[in-house]
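Collaborator request, handled under Task 6.
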Amino acid sequence: MLGNHGRGLTKALFTKPALLLARAGITPNMLTVAGTIASITAAVLTIPQGRFILGPILLTCLLVADSFDGILARATGASSAFGAFLDSTMDRLADGAVFGSLAMWAATHLDPGPLRTWTISLALAALVLGAAVPYARARAESVGAKASVGIAERTDRLVAIGLAVLAVGLGAPQWAITAGLGIVGTASLITVIQRVLTVRTQLAGVPAGGRTGAAE
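Structure tokens returned to the collaborator:
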């Protein structure tokens, strides 16, 4: 949802800087890999240590900059199937670093008890369900359907958990992160269900020939 609304703004803001990068010999794939490394580094070096102001700020900046590679690819005519594949794969690694780091923070900073158990469990659930959202879309496209619907795209999930983490950094109780993880996990599950139902409608009556688990 947020990602769709923000693409026009980022295009207007970043097209000229992206063209400057192109003149310097920077390719979209270089930006994709560099952005992922930066995101993983920022998450791992801030969130497990409880740096809940610096971490969200850095990750928000990197999330905004994440659109640079796509803008650069479109502006220079360098869009490719491999670039789209690489971008999606790198996004999963960056997201895993964020939610994995939150699980690590909970395991090392929260006292043993229900709050720690729920926080770790919800962080892992958010990680898995968040990965299932783009997988459902990719798998739908592989069988000739479209599944771009849903209430929680990547930007929505990261903004929601980023606000929860920042709130704790500014003094909110620790359970705000737990609640944020619960919201992200629930929204991701709803999105997966929405996409499954959408694809079921589109493929109703289509022969099942060739149904396999090859996408795994």
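The cover message to the collaborator said: "The first helix runs from residue 2 to 23. Residues 2-202 form a domain with the Four Helix Bundle (Hemerythrin (Met), subunit A) fold (CATH 1.20.120.1760). Please let us know whether this matches your experimental observations."
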